[in-house]
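haha ok so turns out i had the wrong file open the whole time. this is the CORRECT one, sorry everyone. sequence first:
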Amino acid sequence: MVIRARDLGIPFKGETGQWNAITDVANVAVGHITIIEGEGALVRGQGPIRTGVSAILPRGKAFGPCFCGWYALNGNGELTGTTWIEESGFIETPIMLTNTHSVGAVHDAMIKWQLQNNFYSPLKDEDFWSLPVVGETYDGVLNDINGFHVTTEHAHQALDNARSGLVEEGSVGGGTGMITHDFKGGVGTSSRWITLSDGSQYTVGVYVQSNYGNRKHLTIAGVPVGTELVDQMPSYYPKKVRDETGSIIVIVATDAPLLPHQLKRLAARVPIGLSKVGGHGANSSGDIFLAFSTANENAFNRTGNEQVTMLPNDLMNGLFDGVVFATEEAIINAMVAADTMTGINGETVYRLPHQALQTVLKKYNRLKANN
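then structure:
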């Protein structure tokens, strides 16, 4: 049975979609490939390996650029392709996430996959070109990150595995070797069904690759969990204290008809949800966020004018709320789903203990009834 944050009685605001995932936005597909091999002492190039690749396809396997915007809270990280997103207002490729030193391999692999699957629209009389969107967080505490174990085949498997519906969470895909607030982290997702003040209804979905923060700042449902759960620190502590190191990549999807500048506004609300869990945008953290809209399906046209629909700015507040609430829940889902992991040199990072967390929430009267 898959355990998620709500199953533990953690209270959250807002109404979720069917899957409580980014895939509640129609046609959005997610795929993972997880690579876990070996144990014991680090032998560079051999392992142990604790890494993977994740893929998010805004319109599934169909080529169809989406209006897009992005925002960085702290830029000690990488999300390729954002220069062209900023300039053009579109995202034209899938989004892929992996470890810091595998960005190049995944970048090249995506171009090959686009060619093989005709996932592009070439310029007239010109060869195909692509500026893939690939993000990263650092998994070198648990993974042989300088062994370069992510291959073209792994990236293609993540893309080929992409499906709508339920999304696997925790130590999977690009989140395999990630750590959050000194507990095991990784992949998490959540969604919100939003009714705006004019009665229109839209979905906001969030996907996180979470690898940031330290224990003392961890906050769940407003409770200072990090100062209560002081046991089961990672095996590297205190010999190698991680002081707010790591990063988080957050992808926001919506079916609301937003233009690129409005999507940038959505992406800029992610840090509010991040801060509710205890993320503060530390100097060594790469906190990079991207938002896209699946509305205005035919907006991308190389040769002709197109008419598009734009939601008024004055109606966006409900969408902002959705981003904040879904980001908070997605991060906690990543922690709840992840299991204890031992990686290179026997380094161990423990899962967020479910029963102990419930005890702390109950102490502060924040545990929902029947849990």
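The chain has one domain: 9-363.
again sry for the mixup
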